[in-house]
Please model this.
Amino acid sequence: MLSMGITLTIDDFKRVLTRPGVMLTGFAGCYGFMPLLALGLSKAFGLTPALTAGMVLVGSINGGQASNLCTYIAKGDVMMTTVTTLGAIFMTPLLCKLLLGTLVPVDATGVAVSTIQVVLLPIAVKKVEPFSPIVGVLSTILLVGSAAPILAAGLKLQATAFLLHVVGGAVSYFGLKKFYPETTCRTVAIETSMKSSAFGFLLAKLHFGEFLVRVPSAVSVVWMAIVGSSLAVVFRALPAPKEE
Model:
């Protein structure tokens, strides 16, 4: 998430305004469908309140640099990552307050401050931009490397995290086929299914009282990477989308 914020430019914001309908569709998938899907799956599998809160947090955050890369590989439109990244500034704190406040203690104001710091402030720090991809990759590796809580998470949490990313991508892709061209369907599918799970782990660590809220983000990193990269490879192998 930090590395994504560093790579954003003013021109990226201007490009978003050129396709408002498509961007709003991706936005709705990221911050409407995914949080509710995470909540529904958590309830269906009977997760504890803390784990449910962690899953909803994953569903409430934006895509990151990994989704941007997979979208590029899949011949999609990387512009949508800008929309979901900006949306995190106000949508993630709002969703945490509305959906999670009754489950576990959460500092929604702290979530908002941390999100602003991670998204907006790095835009001005362009000197470190060459190192931003390395920072993102290393952060993800370190999180995945903390294998103990992931292995101990249990099958219910593993299934919930897996289905969150798979169902999110599948519904987004096939649900839009009748309304949008192939490029847009690919983009929304990847941007909806992939989440900046490392950022979710950071927010859980800083602003949630329950330790177990962090675990779903750690589990999600693995499944998000598997599902996202698989989508990118499959889309890459399909016939190239026609020019729009």
The chain is about 75% helix and 0% strand. Residues 1-8, 126-135 have pLDDT under 50 and may be disordered. The two ends are 30 Å apart (CA to CA). The CA atoms of residues 25 and 102 lie 28 Å apart.
